[in-house]
Amino acid sequence: MSTLRPTLVIDVDSSSIGLCLLTHDAAPSISNLKRVSLGTESPPEITDRAVVLSAKLKELLTSVASIKPDRVVIVVSSPWFETALSLLTSSSPAPTAFTRQAIDATVQKYKKSLTGSNHQVVPLSVRINGYTTHVATHVSGTTLEIDVATSTVNDALVAECTKVLRAVYADASITFIPSTLVQSEVVLSMWGDSYGTILSVHGDCTDVTVLVRNSVGFLASVPSGSQSFVSGVSDSQSTVDGASRLALYAAGTLVPQEAEQVLTKLTSASDAWRASLKTVFATAQNTVPTPSRMYLCAPFDVGQWLSKVIPSPSTNEMAKPVVVVDALRAYFTLSDTPIRDTFLMLACYVVHTRMSPPSVVVKASRVLYSIE
C-alpha cells in the first residue's frame, strides 16, 4: 500500500466543475467523484463566472471536507487560461557545455522577466546546434534553443478557488495546471506518438493541440462545444431529449430511419463548429507539420457520437479519432460510483504517474509541468 496521502483532483472547464479523491495505490483508486454544471445562466464575464464557480466548489467540498489531502491539483480548460509558445535562445562563439542547470536557469530567468502572476513556464523541447536533444548532464555546442509554453491561469479563478480551498485545507499545496498540457502528457505517455492532433471538447469550448516531435507545437481554441450539438438534435427546448437520442444513436439501438435523422440533425448542428475547426487546422498546417492522427478527449457520453462529425486536421475526409478515455477504463478502480468522468480521469492519470514511486507505475515519458 502506498504511503502517499490521497490527492484532491479538481477539473474546471467552461461550463462545469468536478472533483474526486485519488488514492495512490498500485491500482490507483478514484472516489468521491462529483461534477456539477455552472448553470445555464452563468455570467458571460469571466470574473463574475469565477464567483459562481467558487460557490459550486464550496458545495462540492462538503463531501470531502473530513479528508485532509497534502495536495490539491486543479486542471483548468479554456477560457480559464491562456498559453503562448515562445523560443528562448542562447549562443556562444566557441563550443560550450550546455548543462541541465544552465537550461533551467535560462527558463527561470525568462519567467522572472514576465509581468503579472500565476505564470507557468514549461520547457517543451531543447535543441543544440539545431538538433533536438535530451540533456541528462551536459551537451556541447554553440547555439541553444528552448521551446517553452507560457501559461497564465485567470487571476480571478486562482483567487476565488484558493480562498475556498484554504478555508478547508489550510496547509495543502495548491497547483493550477492547463488541461492542454495534461492531455498532451497522457498521449505522449500512453501512445508514445511524437506527432498527433488532440481535440478536447467541452460543453461550450473546444481546445486544439498539435504535437510535433514529442512536444506541443500549436495551440488554439474554438468557442463552441458539445452543448450546441445536443440542443440541435433535440425536438424540444430541453437538452435531455437530444442527449437521449444521441446516446441511443451511439449505441446503435435506433432503427435505420431514426439513426439517419439523428445524424442529419447532428451534422447540421455542428456545421459552424466544423467550419471553425477547419480554419484552425488550416492555420496549424501553415505553422507546423499537422498529422492526421487525432486523439479525442470528450465526456464518456459524447465521444462515441461526436466522432461521427469531426473533420480530419490534414485531409478533406472525416477523422477517425482515438477516443483517449477508452484506454483509461481499466486503469483506475472506481470505488464508490459508476460515474465515468473523462477529464478527471485524464488528470488523475497524470497526477498518479508523476507522484507514485517507480515500483508502482511506469513513469510518463514526457514531463510537461511540475506538481509541488
Question: How would you describe what is shown here?
Answer:
The protein has 372 residues and is an alpha/beta fold. The protein folds into 3 domains: 7-79 and 154-190 and 328-355, Ribonuclease H-like superfamily/Ribonuclease H (Nucleotidyltransferase, domain 5, 2-Layer Sandwich); 82-152, 2-Layer Sandwich (Dna Ligase, domain 1); 196-326, ATPase, nucleotide binding domain (Nucleotidyltransferase, domain 5, 2-Layer Sandwich). It is 34% helix and 29% strand. α5 packs across α6. 39% of the residues are buried. Mean pLDDT is 82; it is low at 356-372.
Name a few traits of the molecule.
single chain; 372 residues; alpha/beta; Nucleotidyltransferase, domain 5; Dna Ligase, domain 1; 3 domains; six-stranded mixed sheet; five-stranded mixed sheet; 10 helices; 15 strands; 34% helix; globular; disordered C terminus
